[in-house]
Write a structure and sequence with these properties.
Helix 1 crosses helix 8 (about 200-210), helix 5 (about 95-105) runs parallel beside helix 6 (about 135-145) and helix 11 runs antiparallel to helix 12. The chain has about 325 residues and is α/β, with parallel strands linked by helices. It has helices spanning about 20-30, 40-45, 50-60, 70-80, 95-105, 135-145, 160-165, 200-210, 215, 230-240, 255-265, 270-280, 305-315; strands at about 10, 35-40, 65, 85, 110-115, 150-155, 155, 175-180, 185-190, 195, 220-225, 225-230, 245-250. It contains 13 helices and 13 strands. The longest helix is centred in the middle third of the chain and has 13 residues, at about 135-145.
């Protein structure tokens, strides 16, 4: 389907952190991208907390298929008539994509698969293969290289989500972040090192762009971003929007590495955050050129830093 637009898209993990942005972007895209359905658990489909979101999507033509992601027959049935599968599974469920890909390869209908690759580039350089948070995604890529021949896969690599980068997480203050209430920032290193970010709404926009341009996105690793900035520039934007000077603390890169090692040695779940913050601070999000333009998107099409900061200032999380 090198030059053929998808006709029926199935999203898995649609109501998760990034899945809701991707699904909303596909559902609301004008002109319409494709017929869209989601595969979700009966518990999610009947959840009161998810009801407003699901009702909104259904009013825009989305259909819901319920089943168990670990039940092969349920997945096979969900794949019937579907030419494109978009996985939005979270970090803890990434390994389950191997079975989803196996079933996609065996199906007669699925031709295109988007693994859940949104986030940090897991093959940025030679050191990437050793990063602990990357291992499940790397196993998925290895399975695809060795076993997926008929189905074409597209990886949408976005770098860190600015929306999740901004908060200071309790118990992980030295990993960095920005606290609106106390007007305090913690930045890694000098704060002048550049980091490439994508906003969560823009992840959805980028996936839609990839769906619209199979001639350039099919079977590709797409490296895309909303913007590049520095932690100090983020501080400046918070100061501008709050109208006050912020206090700024620094975590030296060496200190970040020490904490990262200690967290992994202690099997602390925050270890992943420290590793990712270290990768981002050391330049693991920077490219000479992104693939945005190839997908028909310019800088003006993407959200600026000010939008993400405004949401944070107004207490609007992801």
């Amino acid at each position: 389907m090198a030059d053929q637009l998808p006709s029926k898209v199935l999203v898995i993990g649609a109501t998760g952190a990034i899945g809701k942005y991707i699904t909303s972007a596909i559902v609301s895209a004008e002109p319409r991208v494709a017929q869209i359905s989601i595969f979700t658990s009966p518990a999610t489909a009947s959840s009161q907390s998810k009801e407003p979101l699901l009702s909104s999507w259904k009013s825009q033509g989305l259909s819901i298929i319920t089943g168990d992601i670990d039940n092969a027959d349920h997945v096979r049935n969900a794949y019937i008539g579907v030419d494109t599968v978009i996985s939005c599974l979270g970090r803890n469920a990434l390994a389950s994509q191997i079975e989803l890909l196996k079933l996609a390869e065996e199906s007669k209908d699925v031709q295109w698969f988007f693994p859940s690759e949104y986030g940090t580039d897991i093959e940025y350089d030679a050191s990437s293969k050793d990063e602990k948070p990357h291992q499940n995604k790397l196993r998925v890529r290895e399975f695809i290289r060795n076993n997926v021949k008929r189905v074409k896969c597209t990886y949408v690599v976005t770098g860190p989500y600015i929306d999740m980068y901004l908060p200071i997480f309790p118990g992980a203050e030295e990993a960095g972040g920005f606290d609106v209430k106390s007007k305090r920032a913690v930045v890694v290193g000098s704060g002048d090192d550049k980091v490439g970010f994508t906003s969560m709404p823009d992840v959805g926009k980028l996936v839609v762009a990839a769906l619209r341009h199979p001639e350039v996105s099919l079977g590709r690793v797409l490296k895309v971003q909303s913007f590049v900035t520095t932690p100090n520039a983020i501080v400046g934007e918070f100061e501008k929007q709050t109208g006050t000077k912020w206090s700024v603390d620094h975590t030296p890169n060496e200190r970040l590495r020490e904490i990262e090692k200690d967290k992994w040695d202690a099997n602390n779940p925050m270890a992943t955050l420290y590793t990712l913050k270290r990768i981002w601070a050391e330049g693991g999000t920077l490219y000479g050129k992104t693939d945005n333009e190839m997908l028909g998107l310019t800088a003006r099409d993407m959200e600026p830093l000010s939008n993400a900061v405004e949401r944070a200032v107004n207490g609007k999380g992801w």
